[in-house]
Amino acid sequence: MAILIGKLRQLLDDPLLTHREFKKLEQTLFEGDGVITTLERDEFIPWILWPQAFQVLNFYDRLRFTALQNRFTLETYVASLAEVGLRPANSVSKLMKWSTRPGKDYLAQIKKVDYRSPTDFDLKFKYGCRKVFWKYHGETDIEQIELALKNIPLEIVYLSLAEYDETLPPEEKIKIDPIKKQIAKIIYLQDGEIENEAFQETIEETEPLEDLTEYDNLDETGDDMLKSIDLSLSKPVNSTFGLPSNFFTNQENPKILEALKITWDAIPSYLRSKVGSQINFYTLNWGQQLRGYYNNHPWDNNPPQVILGSTKTNKNEIVIFDDYDQLTAAHTLLHEMGHRAFFNLDNQMGGNWNVSEDTEQTPGAFAKLVAQHYVNLFTDPEAILKFPTRYAITDYRDYFSEIFSIYYLGDLDLPLDGGYVTLHQGYANGFRKIKARWMQNDPKGYALMQKYDSWIKNGGDPKIIFAPENNRVA
Ligand SMILES: [Zn+2]
After folding, report:
1. Of 5-14, 101-110, 217-226, 457-466, which one has max mean pLDDT?
2. N or C: which end of the chain has fewer CB within 10 A?
């Protein structure tokens, strides 16, 4: 995904689109999953609405059918072009082949690294036909840096270094690590600013929470798609990866299964046995789900969105989508476990989440405690600092899942890769750091998690431990 977005930006960075570039654009949009996701669409829609950009009318026609008539899959793209006597720029068989494998070839080829210090190094690489010699001297302005990189996104350089890193002997790796860290820092700083803007918008739209049952961060299409997923095709994965028998997959992505195993083994054993053992975990590929769904609903008007994981309130089932990177998988595993932990505890405190999401669910005393704390956080003018991640702002249940995941992940040094998604969400700075910052800025939220941890470890009566009079969150 990251690489695709980077490639799209590179192709669309000037108003000229040559035939060669159009072929690349077409390949990029469908590569890896055969579907144009929300993220990809958002990258090229503003550009497509500016018709002067197209030198040849056919380009415009092709993309118009895809983007503006809501035909998001490779199959519907090919079919809609045929209706007006057009064909894709690439051969259909090639596009089909590309759609089933990730687009690794969009990484830069690192040719030479001269490392002196984290803020003083030279990097020589080849990206497509561009040759870049980047002399870095500690700059932090991303626009200025990307200009020096001939408009190649810094994320691409990061990902390419991570890939290059894997091929090196240990003594060489030592030089790459500080460079990767420095690049991650620059990207993270940039995202911090974006995060602030997004947060300002969110806080302006957020009313104090009154209806505790109101919760939905998926639009109807996302929900329909999740409902249409057939989990019965999944098989246990324990044989190959040593995961417990409640892990299932219907398409093995070894890197993601490895990440889940490492994370699963690293979390406290009481969490595994008391929360995890009650859950069936499924890994699926979201891109494939999207493609199947939109092929069956070709005139669906809602753009396909990216979903990382899902938990049903009334079922002990967690689905983790495996088209992302390892750190995102680790975070998703803990985030979704956080939802289950929340429902299980709240059901013991007068809540009733055991009914389907179409039926009215009753929040119990624990849900009310978390919701009250979540609302209180917004009363602070510097509220952004209080939330451990941007996603924690979504609603009180996702707030709990985020503090749950950061609480546990912040104690672990997981040897996992992270790409664009992780950088974008700031994980590149490390879960440990995110936890440290959150502990300081949201001490009451942290105290609540400490209490949860102690309860899940040692037991006790939740009605007393989490009673409002024993938990002053205000
Ligand atoms: Zn969630």
Report:
1. 457-466
2. C
How confident is the model over 397-423, as pLDDT tens digits?
Answer: 999 999 999 999 999 888 887 654 545
**Each residue's pLDDT tens digit, 185-213:** 787 666 554 444 544 454 444 443 333 33
- pTM for this model (two decimals): 0.78
Structure tokens at 413: 């040094």
Rg (CA), the chain: 23
Distance CA 116, CA 133 (A): 16
Neighbours of ion ligand 1 (CB under 5 A): 398, 401
What is the whole-number distance in angstroms between the Cα of residue 336 and the centre of ligand 1?
Answer: 6
What is the average pLDDT across 370-399? Answer: 85
Question: What are the Cα distances from residue 47, in Å, to 14, 16, 21, 43, 322?
Answer: 10, 11, 14, 8, 30
CA proximity to 456, closest of 277, 289, 236: 277
* Cα-to-centroid distance, 215 and ligand 1 (Å): 10
98-114 b/e (C-beta count within 10 Å ≥ 16 → b):
bbeebbeebbbebeebe
Q: In the chain, what are the domain boundaries?
A: 2-105, 112-190, 221-470
- CATH number for the segment(s) 221-470: 3.40.390.10
